[in-house]
User: What shape does this take?
Amino acid sequence: MQTALAEAALRVADPAAVLMLFMGTTLGVIFGALPGLGTITALAVVLPFTFGMDPMLAMFMYSGIISSGTFGGSVPAILLNTPGTPPNAATCLDGYPMTRRGEGARALAVSATACFVGSLGGAVILLALLPVVKPVVYAFGPPEFFWLVVFGLVTIAFAAKGNMVKGLVGGGLGILLSLIGYTEMYGVYRYTLDSEYLWDGIPMVPFVVGMLAVSELISYSASGGVTASAAAGATGADWRRQTLQGIRDTFSRPLAVGRATAIGAGIGVIPGVGAGVASFLSYVVAIQGSDKPETFGSGNLEGIIASETANDAKDGGSLLPTVAFGIPGSADMALLLGAFVLHGLQPGPLLLRDHMDLVYALLLGIVISQILTSGLGLMAVPWLARLSTLPSRAIAPFVLVLVFVGMYMLRTSIFDVGLAVAAGMFGYCMRRYGFPLITVVIGFILGPLAEQAFLQSLMISDGRYDIFYTQPIVIVLMILTLATVTLPFVKSLRRWVTEKGTGGS
Amino acid sequence: MRGSLLFTASVSGFIALLLWAGLGYPPEVQMLPLVVGLPTLALTIVLLAGEFHPPVMQWLDSALDDLWGGRQETPDAAVDQSSTSWGPVVRMMSWAIGFFAAVFLLGMFVIPPLFIVAYLVTEARMRLAGAFFASLVASTCLYAGMAFLGVDLWTGSVPEVAPGILGGGIIPPL
Amino acid sequence: MHFVKLLAIGLVSGALVLANAPETPAAYPDKPITVIVPFGAGGAYGRLGRKMGADLEKKLGVPVVVKNNPGAGGRKGAVVLFKSKPDGYTIGFVHFVSFQSNEILRGKKASIDYNKFKIILKLTDAKQFVFVNKKSPIKSLADFKKAGRPIKFATTGVGAVTWVEANALGATLGFPVKFVTGYKNLPKAALAVARGDAEAGAGGYVHVRNVLDDLRILAFISDKKDPNLPDIPTTTELGYSQLSVLGVPRIMAAPPGTPDDKLQVIRKAMQEIVDDAAFKEWALKGGFFLNPDGPDATWKVLQANAKIMEGLKPLLKKK
Assistant: This one.
């Protein structure tokens, strides 16, 4: 094992490897930052190039892409309220309010630092769990998935606070819209109106990007002005001070960071739970663990830490079942799996035995690329943050062009572009009439996962519902979920009781 | 006020339509639409009632917040929408729709550079030379990047004029 | 890259045209060929397309551009191929099985008549093993019936290939079949069987490879053995040869109306590639079951497949 590690480390020093890492990182950041494009598209685009390349070099390229996409995606989430990739949506909740307050640089610095720690933590957890991957993967079946996803769905209620009825309507609407499409499980076309386009359902990325990015675009270009009027007069020194502050902010919260890392990596290890779950779930847990839960959603930097750390730690986690088991932990890992096979490598126990150097190369690549991403990112933060002081009308056409090109690239379907525009107009109306958009997005991402896990569980149990509360892991997850929902009630109740008590005396 | 009533009513109607359309599906396929759709429909009806009696809605929202862990200052929405009149909004939406229609017909090589210039000049009140320069820089970066990555862009649905650049795009089945 | 290639080939062919313009009719192929893959880049079709594209490029001496056009279970890319110019410069995979199950099992007519595609060559067959969880008392295909109870199969979805196979097994061997559906892909379905979500399942060697310890493999649905697991009997050997046609033929085709002489050029090149030892080794490693066949034999297999699906139609009505 040591020799494999040494071999991989030697290869990292190779100029060609450094070049590959650098290219992968650059590509990952750019694709992550462009709304709609993400790690998956970046991997798909480079796959043909790496065909015939030395596998080790190709691994460096892939790892650069995988680890840098998340930070890239958080940049527009924080500055423009537009997640670069769907899992970055939870970052908008607190990142954008900070930008509006004029603290864009601080938020970006928190994100860069959180991504770095998350990535490192994810890699460490991967190495630690490598020997026990099989029981972990075997332990999570449909009933366990179900409770995990429900836990994530609880975010809807937290994101809806202050506007509960509209927020819940939004969540419900999101779930309903996500159900459109061919249901493979029963072979039924649900709400497809005989359309071939709707066979695959409403495509997630164009929908999410339309709802969040295009609607934001409409709203800010209609009202004009700049995003962060509070920071209009900020100087370079101000932005740099904020950046340093953001780094300190993250490192002074080891508990929050550690928790988010564990959640992210844990979710990543379980194949098929989906990228959205990790960041939303981590966000809920952060609210629960905070002594000021009411400040989340209005610019609490712990929200960014929770979302971004988990998001990045997830990559290390999902790499685990992919390399050790040949079962992809997420959609981008499925593509990576394809890339492995393309290079004549068979992920699974044999890969660990014969090609451990490649696994280490991938891991080292991820860590080094993350250092690159976060380091260069932090240097760029003071400049990036200035975007928030540009007149929004001058930014609009560029963002719209990027959205158009990105949506088309994804599946080479011109109708996806149209869908993003339509979703944007619908999203604008929701925004205008006070519906929290993020609840629609959460419902849309998690709804189908919940349905599938629920129905699969019932198929396994032949229709008996006790499958949802008899296995040990299931019980733990269920109690956690129910506790999360009821805790706020208990708090309210306790407050009332004490208020009454003081009132009576 | 009227706008929000209309919007809430359409959302409510849409959900009702989905529920109605789902009636013929097998029970398993119908389950989640019902479980989620019925409560959501009920909530939209509460919202509709609130449209006519706004104080009721305010009371309900604050009561729910009190019940569920205490109040929270509402995160101020991106830009305060209600203060913007519909005029500039419709204008912006028309830009987006028009841009899409033009791209659909003439593709992603011809339209985006023109769109950037047109938008910057009319909306951001930039001078023509400046807008032209900005568009040139952005387009060059975009097309160089796409060419480097080997990505094909949409060429427009009009009959082929210049292969790979303008026209000849195959419209996928809708 | 496509751009650069186009430019280069444009310049070269331009120079050629100038050099000897009027006399010789342009030899086919003299410009880049596009291969449409109707699925994503990392999947089996994507890998096969990529490899075939690279080898064709060497063989034919013109650039071959592989384009992924995923969506609608492979049908979106097929429609694009169908509507492309039939000049021999656009070819691609057609996932015929998806059209068939869609039309026969789900009663949805496609917007194109897929029987009009010009088949170039069937390259591989995705054939499946039938397996059960190792703890199951079932030790052979015959035991399925002897168990005297419904057997639960893990599968991706209703109408999917493994769903058809499980039902066909049930109908042929005479045992009732139940399903746990909704697994994203076949490796996950195999994992589900290994974990015990369902008792039985079907999948290729690459899908079961990593969970082999927890599975018992009963048979290979094919008339030829899988070189990866040569000890497993085929359905033909076991006396159920009517099942052996099941599977996914991966077929390279061209738009309707493509001239036959051009098809012949590509067919010959592909046949030579498939027969090449290096390609064979690559295929074996990647879990591809090479089984090249010309258009006539391929259409026959597709018809046999359709007939089995017709036979399963009543099963869907019953539910």
